[in-house]
Design goal:
Elements lengths: L1 E9 L4 H16 L4 E8 L6 E8 L2 H8 L2 H11 L2 E10 L4
Antiparallel strand pairs: 1-3, 1-4, 2-3
């Protein structure tokens, strides 16, 4: 199981637009082969800072999603709203 965390900081004026993008696509992402969970988190002290947390059956499943038309569309719309470049980590649970 792969745990994926993506950190994103948005322009203040685009926060609600991003929340709408995520809300409109969350079920589609979850329906992707190998996706077991996906959620959106917002920093309690900095409302511009968001994280997505997702669980993937395998790295291959994650990579297939990252190469999909769905990802390309969502990411293109999302990254246009960034204040700073996103950071991402793919992790394995150790214990």
């Amino acid at each position: 199981m792969i745990k994926r965390i993506v950190k994103m900081k948005f322009k203040e004026t685009d926060i609600n637009d991003f929340k709408t993008i995520f809300s409109n696509n969350q079920a589609k992402i979850l329906a992707t082969k190998g996706c077991k969970h996906v959620e959106l988190l917002q920093d309690i002290n900095n409302p511009q800072l968001f994280f997505t947390f997702s669980l993937w059956q395998s790295e291959d499943d994650l990579n297939q999603y990252r190469n999909s038309d769905l990802f390309k569309q969502v990411w293109q719309n999302t990254k246009a709203k960034f204040e700073t470049k996103a950071e991402a980590w793919s992790l394995n649970q150790v214990h």
